[in-house]
Amino acid sequence: MIENADQIFVLLKHWLIGFLPTGLQGVAGVLLSVVGIIAVFPTLFALAVWMERKGLARMQNRRGPNRVGPFGLLQPIADAVKSLTKEDIVPLRADAVVHFMAPVVLTVVVFMGVAVLPMGRNMTLAPMDAGLLFFFAMGASTELAVFMAGWSSRNKYSLLGAMRGVAQMISYEVPLLMSSVAVVMITGSLSLDKIVAAQNQYTWGLPHWYIFTPWGLAAFLMYAIAATAETNRSPFDLPEGESELVAGYFTEYSGFKWALFFLGEYVGMLSISGLGTTLFLGGWSAPLASLGWVPSWFWFFSKVLMSIVVFIWIRGTLPRLRQDQLMNFAWKFVLPFTLLDLLVAALWRFMNDSWARWMVCSMILLLAYALMGGVGMSREHFGLRKYRYAE
Amino acid sequence: MPEQKLECRGKDALPMSIVFYIIAAFTVAGGLAAILLKNTVHCALALTVAFAGQALMFLALDAQFAGFAQILVYVGAVAILVVFAILLTRGSETPKDGVYSKNSFVGLVIAAGVFAVLGWAVLGSEKVLPNEKATPTVTVLEIGNALMGRYVLPLEIAALLLTAALIGAVIVAMHEKEGAK
Fold first, then answer.
1. Is residue A268 in some structural domain?
2. Are A102 and A142 in contact (CB under 8 A)?
3. CB-nearest partner of A137 from B45, B71, B92
4. How many Cβ pairs closer than 8 A exist between chain A and B?
5. A291 to chain B, minimum CA–CA distance in Å?
6. Distance from CA of A321 to the nearest CA of B (A)
7. Which of A139, A190, A361, B74 shows a CA-CA span of 20 to 30 A to A316?
8. Distance of alpha carbon A86 from alpha carbon A78, whole angstroms
């Protein structure tokens, strides 16, 4: 019974494709999994939007949506009906083809990245040998969609937003990749299923998640920072800073296309949380050995939703960064620290499993953090601001 | 370690030739659009289509690593670099005297020469590597081992070259700041 609950979606799929002739079963199985992903992630998107609106409202001493359904839970449906029935306005001078293609490319690419995530035991749509590489290849392609949207709108706010967005995504993609490389070094595989399998072990009932090692914790923090910037979330939401750029690269989008951008942004957030969960938080494995009876997919999705809650919490807490702060932070702190973490991970791999390994690795990382933080802070001149270009 | 393949690939997969022709048409169309379109940004985007087509070709040949690296590097980085270069220099507006080069004949000769050399190398590879008849199954693990073992020196030289280029780019960019002060 317990095993059935764990494998319920896999069994359901096999039962459904059992009705078809054998020749079609392979194709039908893949199609069914794709339909599952396309159904589940927009639902999670609706839930995340509701959580965000409610959570932010609480932090800002408001009530948030509370008219449609109990606790405003059906608000996303009303929003969906609104954006689907709105008039689709394309600016007269806009580049119609590219303007149309941009949201399509973004949505397609974001959903393709989801395909490699192991969402539960035996629940990976495409268990590839190079799954991690595939995910990052898809993630890199979203930059092009952002550029296409901003450039084709023929609007200076859109173009500025797109340029900011692309520059930011390129800068933070490097630490995002580098922090994942530490995990690949320790596991010895780019396959996400093997990375989860390596973490799905327990000592004294406690899991072997990578976040519970010095290098893993450091890599996870850097990954979280880079992931926040990569998804254009606050405090790194300069590409769509309302006070400066109206809405950034999707200023000139309305109706269904705007909804697609919104969907792309949130599914991107869900998928990057899913990858972080897989790499550092043990994927679908239970947090305690004694909780192993709970279905694996439950753990995966609850970890992803917890990450979304943290995203929302940070958005409600931190102010937006300035462009130069953003770039300095990426290149002068996050990237060097990730590189150091790679070295520490290599050290961890080749030292014996003893308390000395923990001490040495933690000390290196803590010292480096204190040193880099101290130097960085002493360079900041707190006082009157001087503007170089505004003379 | 055996290569893990997609579940959909197997007996019911389409024959190679049909897949090849579809991808080839896609890639060639992207490449032609890249040289024939008038707007420079459109050209860059069409070039990206050609890059993506090449990546699909690698994937159709079961070369996962090459395919994903192609997308990551070319679609993700090179295309963005091209687009930035276009926007930061001349702008994407079409110049009045047309976009086509006057000496297209020279370009045609160079292109034909490059194509001939590549074709000669590909056709001659059978004699040089007679034992490569069977389809190789190269896993990402093997590529990593080869890069870190047998080919570590070329890798290091490439890394050194790239670092030098990076420092050079930074120095070129820094020059303006020194002049301003």
1. yes
2. no
3. B71
4. 81
5. 30
6. 23
7. A139
8. 12
Q: Does a structural domain hold residue A240?
A: yes
Q: In CATH, what number is assigned to the domain containing residue B78?
A: 1.20.120.1200
CB A199 within 8 A of CB A334: no
Same domain, B22 and B81: yes
Model confidence, pTM: 0.83
Q: Of A14, A309, A276, A274, whose CA–CA distance to A120 is shortest?
A: A274
Assigned domain for B100 exists: no
Residues of B in contact with A30 (CB under 8 A): 7-8
Three-point CA angle A245, A250, A254, nearest 5°: 120
pLDDT tens column, A326-381: 888 888 888 988 999 999 988 888 887 778 888 888 888 888 888 888 887 777 66
Q: What is the extent of the structural domain holding A201?
A: 90-379
Position B107 in a domain: no
Residue B153 lies in a domain: yes
Structural domain count of chain B: 2
In a domain, B36, yes or no: yes
DSSP class per residue in A164-206: HHHHHHHHHHHHHHHHHHHHHHHHT-S-HHHHHHHH--EETTE
Q: Is residue A164 part of a domain?
A: yes
A268-286 burial, b at 16+ Cβ within 10 Å, e below that, comes to bbbbbbbbbbbbbbbbbbb
Q: Under a CB-based contact definition with an 8 Å cutoff, are residues A72 and A62 in contact?
A: no
Q: Is residue A75 part of a domain?
A: no
Residue of B33, B51, B34 whose CA lies nearest to A137 = B51
pLDDT of A199 > 60? The answer is yes
Distance CA B49, CA B52 (A): 5
Inter-chain residue contact A136 with B79, CB threshold 8 Å: no
Q: What is the mean pLDDT of the segment spanning A83-105? A: 86
Q: How many domains does chain A have?
A: 1
- Show which residues on chain B lie within 8 Å of chain A, measured between beta carbons: 3-4, 6-8, 10, 12, 41-42, 45, 48, 64-65, 68-69, 71-72, 75-77, 79-80, 83-84, 87, 92, 139-141, 180
Looking at residue B7, its pLDDT comes to 40
- For residue A295, give Cα distances in angstroms to A4, A270, A305, A329: 9, 20, 16, 40
- Stretch among B36-50, B107-121, B129-143, B155-169 having the lowest mean pLDDT: B129-143
Residue B15 has pLDDT above 60, yes or no: no
For residue B30, what are the domain limits? 14-93
Q: Which residues on A lie below 8 Å from B4 (Cβ)?
A: 127-129, 191
